[in-house]
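Quick one:
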Amino acid sequence: MKRTAQAATLAFACVLCLAFVLRGATHYGAASATQKQPLKANGMSAAALYGKNCATCHGKDGRSKTFKGKLKHAPDLTDAQWQAGKSDEHLFNSISNGREKMPAFGKKLTAQQIESLVSYVRGLKK
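Output:
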């Protein structure tokens, strides 16, 4: 009888551990799947931030084929050569402080939002 109770307790403990392991694996699997989803910063996805603040000039696809983009000579953010020539720090500073005809967003966006935009812009590279 005592052995049966011990075996049942051990079996229950194993099932419980397995449940935690599977839950953790599912949780981490979900996290890696969401990495392909747009990044979120302060409740707004990077795609939404880009659409609201950048797409007017740089276009939804990042190619800067918009009227304002052509007028202001906005760079094609999808161009691999342009991307290779810019560090993440350069992109962060350009978004924060502005650059030539590009307005500064440092007072409008948080550092976390700007970082998410830098990552989003990196994802536009072809």
